[in-house]
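Reading a protein record of the kind used here takes little practice once its layout is understood. The reader may check this reading against the record printed directly beneath this paragraph.
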Amino acid sequence: MTSIAMWSGPRNLSTALMYSFGNRADFAVVDEPFYAHYLAQTGLDHPMRAAVLSSQSQSAEAVIQSLTQPKPQHFYQKHMCQHMLPSVPRDWMHGVQNVFLIRHPARVIASFGAKYEGFGLADIGFSQQLELFDMLRNEGQTPLVIDSADIRDAPETMLTRLCTALGLPFDKAMLGWPAGGHPEDGVWAAHWYNAVHASTGFAGPEGPLPKLQTAADQKLLSEALPVYEALAQFRLTA
């Protein structure tokens, strides 16, 4: 059975893509399994912090054990790159197919800022995403990269392309899902997932890039954009 580790930052279409794979009859999914470990180690005061800490194991080793034990179905793992602190071992990543989901940072900054204040580059996962990608390439892997904008522009085309690259058949069930969320949603879904809970499929193509209003957001964009561009050169195309 195939295990897919999908690496992104927040507000990257990551939950919709989890729902897409989760709507296949041959896939199980898991939602951000290192989140409690991340909050416990950093002390960050995220929305619903106490609920997150009590809903998952705070042990990175225990999480890895759950991710690597044999599964009766294909297994889709939704991960946030910023959750991969130095305290999280990396060797288990060699036993999964690693995919990096990217999104233009202007869109990420605008979307994340509507839900969480006072964040910086470390909170949106760009630098950690490139670090993990480079680590895997330096160790001989060829991780895949897919851009959320390309998925929204042509969902069936890009999901077929992704499945082919993963050695899987495309399943039209991936193009939609029931409204209201997935049984494997993390407890934090009540704060973060309202828009995707109202959806039954991928939204259409995105419009122009948002204009970031503050100097802090502009600085953050200047830091994140080179990372996005470095990864985008490897992305799957139609």
